[in-house]
Amino acid sequence: MGSLQYCEHCGNRLCIYRVPLFSSLSEENLHQIASYIQHRSFEKGELLISEGESTDSLVIIHQGVVKAFRYTAAGREQILYLFSEGDFFGEQYLFSNLKATYNVEALSPVKICLLTKSHLHKVLLTHPEVAIKLISELGKRIAQMENTFQSMGIRDVDARVATLLLDFAERYGREAPGGTLINLPISREGMANYLGIARETLSRKLSKFEDDGLIQSLDLKTIQVKDSDSLEDLAGLS
Amino acid sequence: MGSLQYCEHCGNRLCIYRVPLFSSLSEENLHQIASYIQHRSFEKGELLISEGESTDSLVIIHQGVVKAFRYTAAGREQILYLFSEGDFFGEQYLFSNLKATYNVEALSPVKICLLTKSHLHKVLLTHPEVAIKLISELGKRIAQMENTFQSMGIRDVDARVATLLLDFAERYGREAPGGTLINLPISREGMANYLGIARETLSRKLSKFEDDGLIQSLDLKTIQVKDSDSLEDLAGLS
DNA sequence: CGTGTACTTGAGAATTGTCAAAGGCTGTGG
DNA sequence: CCACAGCCTTTGACAATTCTCAAGTACACG
Predict the structure, then answer these.
(1) Residue B17 CA to nucleotide D12 C1', Å?
(2) What residues contact A38, with CB distance under 8 A and at least 6 apart?
(3) How many other CB atoms sit within 10 Å of the CB of residue A143?
(4) Closest residue to A149, CB basis, from B98, B126, B148
């Protein structure tokens, strides 16, 4: 998993304070867990995990954005998740001996916190409330995947693109006069692959949306949402 | 959630013995949990849960098959899951006060076991190993959804149909001379909606597969897989 | 055995994918 | 600071696929 680098910029405690997973713990318990945590940093483009690798840690994103992806039989990259600050992954492998089923790559400089399998087991067995929190977080993720899944099942491509834009606006946007500014974490190609459409099709849809005044592409990595109501209509959130 | 009916055919203990969730428990603990369990039966076509309803129980399928679905903005039914014996659902709502986000309908006569929110909490807090098992099961479900998600992202429709057939063969098939017999739990329309394609397109694909000798449609609810290797090729599992 | 529902098949319209070329941004090196 | 190379993106044109609408067929149920 790359070379080990201790994270200089965050005190051990900071990380786990930010993580919803541990939010129900007392100061004392947090200290105990903090002592188990390891830190690493990655540059943009570095792989945190490769498919097939065996992993033994829960990974919590402390800073930055990563993408989790696989390659389809056709060789296309299928993005499964974008994880950012406070998100975690790797939980599937903590109670089984499965190998990683996807690759994870840093899309920006990234700092992560690691909690090994055995340490996490210790925490869960002694703090059932953390287990309940984890179950709850997994439930949330499942609910979110159900939504994504449903939007993938939508045949109308305009609706899928609109849904993605709204989703990004919520997760990566910041309010500005004239509309929410989205700082796109991935390229057009990445978005197209995420949606399961050709990148040319995505380009055309975005151009059409721009012509219709729904969005404005300020820069390849910045899109401004000018008319979120119309986007919501398109997305089918009537 | 329909009218309450005690399940006459299964002793209380039977249910939870079958559920992987509780497989790590001792005889004694099983007895304790068994005392919490309630049973109900549903006829084919009955709704177990309606979208927006508030639920307070974990539902474990003891017998039969159910579908979980929502309606898209276009009014189309989008199937999210098919659950059968040993599967459970409703866990998302146990640690939040969210309402159900999908409908669940019996596709056959169904018997379920119910464990209420407060009872489950009690079990999890006193038996951390059940919590770990639950986390592990949720992880499995997430991994499975990731696979489904990826296959939804495949642009090639033939591949998606082949993937669905192989999946069904594994879950609902039984071996027979000449190839696995699949007992389809849902209609063609349901399959088409699940895949996000028009039902006519699915018909055409199935007809083509039959012409090519990959499958044989014996009956509207029975398909025989004649050439699973070719299906796997199509699905992209090279 | 008839009726209703679900499924299949056909044909034309609409959408998307593919291939090709041009445009724009980024970073390097002079 | 500018020029150029490389990569990503956009646009165009055509081919392929899928959707829609419509008619006909098979099956299930009463």
Answers:
(1) 64
(2) A4, A57, A113, A114, A115, A116
(3) 15
(4) B148
With H, G, I as helix, E, B as strand and everything else as coil, classify residue A49: strand
Give me the DSSP letters along B186-216. S-HHHHHHHHTS-HHHHHHHHHHHHHTTSEE
CB-CB neighbours of B200 under 10 Å: 10
Please write the tens of the pLDDT for every residue from A97-151. 788 999 999 998 999 999 998 898 888 888 888 888 888 889 888 998 988 888 8
DSSP-derived 3-state class of residue B53:
coil
Report d(CA B238, CA B236) in Å as an integer: 5
**Interval B58-72 mean pLDDT:** 91
Could you say which of B95, B153, B235 has the minimum Cβ distance to residue A135? B95
Closest CA to B219 of B178, B177, B183: B183
**Beta-bridge partner residues of B16:** none
* Token representation of residue A163: 């849904």
Contact A193 B153 (CB under 8 A): yes
Pairwise CA distance, residues A76 & A163, whole Å: 22
- Structure tokens belonging to residue A119: 């340490």
- DSSP assignment of A156-214 equals -HHHHHHHHHHHHHHHHEE--TTSPEEE-SS-HHHHHHHHTS-HHHHHHHHHHHHHTTS
Which residues from B are below 8 Å from A138, CB to CB?
A: 135, 138-139, 142
Confidence (pLDDT) at A131: 87
Task: Decide: B80 and A149 in contact? Cβ < 8 Å.
Answer: yes
Identity at A117, one-letter amino acid code: K
**Tokens describing residue A112:** 């992560």
Gap between the Cα atoms of A17 and A26, Å rounded: 11
Q: CA of A79 vs C1' of D7, distance in Å?
A: 21
Domains delineated in chain B:
12-152 (2.60.120.10), 156-235 (1.10.10.10)
